[in-house]
Amino acid sequence: MKLEGKTALVTGAARGIGRGIAEVFAEQGADVAINDIDITGGAADDVVRWIRSRGRRSMAVQADVSDRNGVESMFEKVWKELGHVDILVNNAGIETIIPFLEITDEQWTRVTDVDLRAPWLCSQVFCRRVIAEGRKANIVNIGSIQAAKILPGRTHYAPAKLAIEALTRNTSAEMTPLGIRVNCVHPGFIATDMTSWIQKDPDILSSVVAQISVGRAGEPRDIGKVAAFFASDESDYVTGQSIHVDGGWIFK
Ligand SMILES: NC(=O)c1ccc[n+]([C@@H]2O[C@H](COP(=O)([O-])OP(=O)(O)OC[C@H]3O[C@@H](n4cnc5c(N)ncnc54)[C@H](O)[C@@H]3O)[C@@H](O)[C@H]2O)c1
User: Fold this and answer.
1) Could you report the per-residue pLDDT of 219-234, keeping only the tens digit for each?
2) Atom 33 of ligand 1 has which residue's CA nearest to it?
3) How far apart are CA 183 and CA 194, in angstroms?
4) Partners of 60 in the β-ladder
5) Is 185 in the pocket of ligand 1 (CB under 6 A)?
6) What positions carry a catalytic annotation?
7) Ligand 1 atom nearest to 218, measured from its CA
């Protein structure tokens, strides 16, 4: 098991890719804290139960990852209940599709706050704690295929996701000498609530899948497996990297 004895915090993990990452991490031996912006609906508790049923420790922790006070208190709660955290996965994200000429200041700010400033903020709060304890750790950022591929209506989302690559390599350059590696996974088309509008439309679905060399949509666990590699000692000479996990979409 790659992550035996490790504790991870996955943001936006009540569903979708975050849940897939949390499940793979638990199967690889990690205890996992499940963050989401709203944990009252039962979805986060369901993930917690799933992880506990595999013999690992887990907890749900509510926070808007773009809010500094919320992030500080999230890490405080997790550290208190599960002990020190070894792995942070910055997965929480939002995507809206709005033509360039129609985007408002508020829409731009919300997307860039959650998709770019929040991973920076969570990483900073996490690294300060880890360094103060003199421990080693790992950060995995979740970007998007849209760091490299143009899809319409994403002039706010795509720049935020491309910037995750720069955030990854610049944070890595400052933090790796202090014992914290930082890497990034760019998902392609993954079957989650975020992409349900594609999955529900047979014409759009078949046109997207036709562009994917592997010939299918990705599953959240496809991202989880690569995130687990980055979070484990198997990748101990890899840092500052971004990898596309997209079934070959951008290269077809
Ligand atoms: N699904 C895809 O095809 C795809 C492709 C490329 C990148 N991504 C990225 O992967 C990540 C996960 O996407 P997904 O498809 O699982 O999306 P999703 O919408 O299914 O799940 C996202 C989760 O994040 C939570 N969240 C949103 N804002 C938050 C906030 N401010 N604080 C805390 N939690 C918050 C949501 O409540 C939700 O549970 C996102 O960063 C997304 O941009 C997804």
Assistant:
1) 999 999 999 999 999 9
2) 37
3) 23
4) 34
5) no
6) 157
7) 3
Supply 189's token pair: 């088309």
Closest ligand 1 atom to residue 161 Cα is 43
pLDDT tens digits, one per residue of 85-98? 999 999 999 999 99
Ligand 1 atom closest to 187 (CA): 6
- Does the residue 161 lie in any domain? yes
Distance 111 CA to ligand 1 centre (A): 11
What proportions of the chain, in percent to the nearest 5, are helix, strand and coil? 50, 15, 35
Report pLDDT digits (tens) over 30-44: 999 999 999 999 999
Residues with Cβ < 8 Å from 98, sequence gap 6 or more?
107, 153, 156
Is 251 within a domain?
A: no
Its domain, for residue 66, covers 7-245
- Does residue 28 belong to any structural domain of this protein? yes
Q: Which tokens belong to 241? A: 């990297």
Q: Is residue 2 part of a domain?
A: no
Based on the structure, what is the number of domains in the chain? 1
